[in-house]
Each structure stands twice: as C-alpha cells, then as structure tokens.
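Give me structure tokens for this 814-residue protein.
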Amino acid sequence: MSEIRQVVLPVTGMTCANCVATIERNLKKQTGVQSVVVNLSSERAVVEFDPQLVGLDDLIQRVQRAGYGVAAGQASFVVRGMSDDNDARRLEKALARLEGIVKVQVNYPAETVQVEYIPTLLNQTEIRKVIQSSGFETIEKDASLHDAEGEARAAEIRHQRRLLITGILFTLPLFLLSMGRDLGLLPMEWRHAPWLNWVLFALATPVQFYVGGQYYRNAYHALRNGTANMDVLIAMGTSAAYFYSIAILLGLVKDHVYFETAAVIITLVRLGKFLEARAKGQTSEAIKKLMGLQARTARVSRNNQEMEIPVEEVTIGDIVLVRPGEKIPVDGVIIEGHTSVDEAMLTGESMPVEKRPGDPVIGATLNMNGFIRFEATRVGKETVLAQIIRLVEEAQGSKAPIQKLVDRVAAIFVPAVIGIALITFLVWYFLIPLPETAQTGLFTRAMVNMVAVLVIACPCALGLATPTAVMVATGRGAEAGVLIRNSEALERAARVTRVVLDKTGTVTRGQPGVTDLIPLIPSPQQTHSAVNWEWLRLAASAEQVSEHPLAQAIVAEAGNRELKLTSPDSFQAITGHGIQAQVEGHQVWVGSPRWEVFNSISLNGVHSLIHELESSAKTVILVSVDGTPQGVIGIADQIKEGSKEAIDEFHRLGLKVTLLTGDNRRTAEAIAAQVGVDDVRAEVLPDGKAQQVKELQSQGEVVAMIGDGINDAPALAQADVGIAIGTGTDIAMATAPITLISGDLRAAVRAIRLARRTLRTIKQNLFWAFFYNTILIPAAAAGFLNPMLAAAAMAFSSVFVVSNSLRLRRARLN
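Here you go.
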C-alpha cells in the first residue's frame, strides 16, 4: 500500500463558509484524495492524498477550477556558470521536479532564474540548494539587490578575464615553441631535445585544468543529470588531444605531441566566452537605464518640517516637494502648484506635459519649470517605473514560439555531434588509407579530425539566437514607451496585416467638447457684438446634475463663458433621449433632435442645420425653453494629436487600417475621412467588437486591435495582438500583450516597427546558427579544418549572434 501524503495549500479568494464547502467538495471529487480540511481563518487547505493516484498539479487545478487561487511566492536568482542553452534547460527541468514549484523560467542570456512556488511547500533556501547541486552559483535577486546583481555580473566578467589572461600567458609561449619546432625555427639542439615536450606539458597543464576546469565541472554535472552540453564537447575534444600527448610524452606512443592544440582550443573558447559575457551584459542595458532613472532622495513635509530622506523611506500619503529641475521621486497627485513635466524617459514622447492640481505625476520623470507639492500614492514596487521594470524582465524571460523549434534541435544537438565525431574517427581510421607521404599515423589523423568536429559544433549560437534579440527588443521598447509583456506578442506583431482602431480614446480624445453654439431665436437686445446666452445658461443649469459626458461638456462650456448657473427645481433624465428640468420657473428640454418631445415643436429651417453638423461627425443637442426651440449645440470628440500621422505610418508599413466604433455611421465616416482609414465599421456594440475582429481573421488577416484596454477587453483578447493605450499610470491594469505607456497612437507604429526588426534579427541569428553548423561540421568531418581554427570559429559564432542582436538598441523607430 502506498504512503499517504499531506500538503498544505494557501488558498486565495475565500470569503465565507460556502467557499470552504465548495473547495472541500471539489478536492474530494479528485481520485486519490483521502481527506480535505479547509480553514477560512487561516485560508489554508490541508489535503491528504495518495501520490500514486494524484499529483500536486491536479490538486491546484481542482482549486482553480472551483474559482479560487493558490497563492504563489515569486523569487528571482542570478545564476552563474551556465555554458549554453542546454544548461538552462537542464536547470529548468531540475527545478520543475521540485514539489511546490508552480512555474520556472531559466533565461540563459540574462543568466537569471524566475520561480513561482507555493510557500507552504517550499522555500527559497531549498530552491537555491537545487540550483547549486546542479553545478551553478546563485545570488538572490530582489529590488534591494540590484547593485548586488550588477556586482555579480561584473565579478563574473572579471573572473572570465583572469582566466583568459592566464590562458594567453601559458598558451602563447606554448604555441610559439610548438610551431617553432614544426617550422624549424628553433635551434637544432632544442628541436629534438626530450625536455622540450616536458616544457610543452608544463605550459599546457594549467590551461587544461585551471583555465579549462569549468568545462570539466560543467560537463560532469550535465552528464550526471543525463544530458550533454557544449562543455561536454570541449572537455572531450581537448582531453583527447591532451591525454594522447601524455601517452606520447611517456613513450607509450611514437608521434608528435598535441599539447598546443588542446591549450589553443581552451583559450580561444575562453576568449569567445569572455566577449560573449561582455556582450550579453549589454543586452540588459535598457533595464539598467530604467533602474538608473529612480531618484535617490525625496524632500517631504512631515509635522510641518521639510526633510530630505532616501526615496525608499517615502510612504503613501507623504507630502512631497519638488523644485524646478528635480526628478519626481515617486508616483502621486499634485495638490499645489503648476508645472510642465518631461515624461520622455518613460513614455517616449518628447513634448513636456502640463500639470496642475489634481493631475497625476510619475516617479522618475523630470519637473521642468514649476514648484509643486504632491501626495505620494505609489511607492517602492508599486510605482509605474517599478512595474515597467518588472514587466520588461518578465518579457525578457519569456519564450517566443519560434524558439520551440530551436529547443527541439538543441535537445538532440550535442548527442548528434558526439555521434558524428565518433563516426568521423572510425571512417578516417578504418576506411580511408593513409597516403605514403603522410607525416602522421592513422590514429593521429582520425583523432585530429574527430577533435575538430567536437570543437566546431556550437549549440550556444542556437540557444542565444532568439532570447538575446528578445531581451534587447523589450528593453528598447520600454525606452520608446512600448511595454511588451511576452515574446510571443513581439513575434505576432511582426506578422500583422491589419490594424483595427477603436475610435473613442484611441483615435479621438474620448472627451466631448462643445464645437458649435447656434442661437435659433435672437433676443430683442441682441446686437452684432453681443449674443444672449440665456438659453445656454438654462440648459447648463439643468444639465449640471447629470453625469453624462455630453452634459458635462455643456456645463464646461457655460463655465468657460462665466455664466452663472442655478440648481434646477426638478430634473428627469430620459435614457437615450435627453433631460427635462424646471429651472427658475422655465420648462427646459435638452436632448436629441429625434426625441419625440420635440415633434410638437416647429423646427422649420433647423433640419438642414442638424444634418450639416452631423455630417461633420458632431453630436447635435437641441435646447427648448417653454416649448420654443432656443438653440442648437454641436458636440464632438476631437481627434488626438498624432492620430493621422500614425495612420499614415501604418499605411507606409503596408498595413490596412479599420476604424471600429459604436457611433452612428455618419459620425464614424466623418472621423474616418479626417484621419484616412481604409475601412469603417460603425454602430458596433461593445460585445460585437470581438466578432468584427473574428470576421477579419476569417478573411486571412493577422489583426492587431488597439484600444483602451478596459472597454475593448474582449476584442483585445480576440485579436492576434492586443495593444492597449495607456495613460502612463494604469499599465498594471492593462492585460493586453502590448501596452503603450502614453496615449499617443504613434507609439503603436513604433511597436510594430520594433517587432518587425526583432523578427528579422531573430531570423538572421537562426540562419547564421544553422548555416554555421550545417556547413562547418561536415567540413571538419571531411578533414578540411584544423582543430584550432575550428575552436576559433566556434568561439566567435555566439559573439556574432549577440552582437547582431545588440544592433536593435540603435534601431530607429520613429
């Protein structure tokens, strides 16, 4: 009989005893579950189960299917010692086997591990032990340890440099002595002296086991875990040359020693790894820049005293003071002062934004020209900057769909290369006769070609091709005000053929404003220079108790004209039509001209005016006082600055643009004519927008939907790529794969340009990686490559891939 196990699951979302019963009932339905006790107070479920019949994942899924969550802690680690993508996959598998691990993501180029785990089953110390037992070094990565992470990377590069310098110091004289003997450049008495081989041995041994020691250690850990990586290839290739040379040195075999071959291979590979480490450090340069934006101190007012404190000590509710030219330390809302703020470092927009009391400010932006006091609303990990950094890091750790093919190839790559190397040895030893003029033996020739195959193969270039490009691209996007949540969105955005735009809040401002005021009955006192706005004053007085956006626009216009409003004596709103109110003894009707209440009123000559306004994408409001039409108000949602330029840019990129709106067709077509879209779909209800996207997809279009991220959530989810227009402060709320920090549509153009360039870079990297291995492995097997040249080629192949990805940092997106 199998042993019964017990686990404790921290459950989220419970509010009452019914929740407890629901969770218990659902868990008990699972085969293999013996007992369940759910505690509402502690919010934990204690489950006893048979591990042969049910697993932890099944229990978690049961809780989730019941509509609740299982709390997961998150931890990030900086990991040193990974040699290639095989190591990353090996570590990922080792961590995934830990009970309590919900999700694990190992990013080889960034040298990071991100883990989600159930804190009641596992802790970070245990996770760290597994990483270390897999043969790697780890440092916990936290918001407070950004400097430690940077120091760890710098220390790793310094260590690589020390090993490289040591390798060069021993390998250079070794190579010169060996080549000097082979080319007859050494004195005669040296060339045949038995001590020369011992000198070569003395120079090669520190390189083999000190400079190359990491390859042996990593190869051991890989083989112990049932996998093979680049270190296995290097260790096998250099060991063959080194130990064969020892056999010659001891007189067991009569031949030429190959100590210089082993040493040169190790030193060249070390040089490649050093250059790769330096280049990989630059792929996360954007993250470092974002971290560097944070202000170090803040000036706050506490107990009527001004004091300067570290920014980490600012708390929500603190009153923060910022002078002209200073950075805004945390997020907040202005309570005093006017200024303009440079938000370019976060939104990518070059123009400063005017700020006044009530407006939000974002930490790390620059206060330009006014003194302000604001109340802190978000601090620490909750600030917009911290959220951006977290989202970018998550995106950098995600895998693009194109990477799946690479993973499948890389999984069998090293075993395949070892097989090819063994076949190469056997063919050259048994099947190809040795020419009479040959200066080496059969075994030596076969061994040299086998070593060339082992060291020419480069799984690193395959593993780095996609993630390095994604890392650089997501960082570059953040600099341009584009947040990419995962690499899949980046890849899909590159293939978009149609852009669908929600009108309100995306193409237009989403804030109606009065554009036309047309009196219908001139008053006896009216002159050419003065207009009686009594009808507008009465209409605004009636509307001031309404929350409708059109009503607020009318009230705002009355305020602009400094008209004195009074409270209505009675008020009634008729949904979809307008309002009826009594103001200062007058009966006031304000609403759509099509409202039946206006049917009994003579509107001679007004219909043509109404038609003209509606043709210009304006909403028409009729005002009647005491049964007489007094005036017509035209209200329009104004087009955002940059919308037309963005749509023109979409067209230059070869994309078709569709405008999607719930407005009437006449209004929608008028807006469309102003901005130049290809297709208009009007009078679409919110729940019908997703269906419109689906219809375009059925026509073979790859659709990017751009909307406000809240009202358009179904359409954003249906689209191949959802792009949410942000406001600079709500990025955490938007669930779209791509979020534009600013509300400027031109940022969407930058997103698609960046996606296309990233995909092109990934394809270039993959072409190089596959081409390199496809051409040079057969060349090495055919005996065309000296092992030292093969090592040089292998060392620089991954450097090429990383350097090619780094070009994205300089990509022009505007």
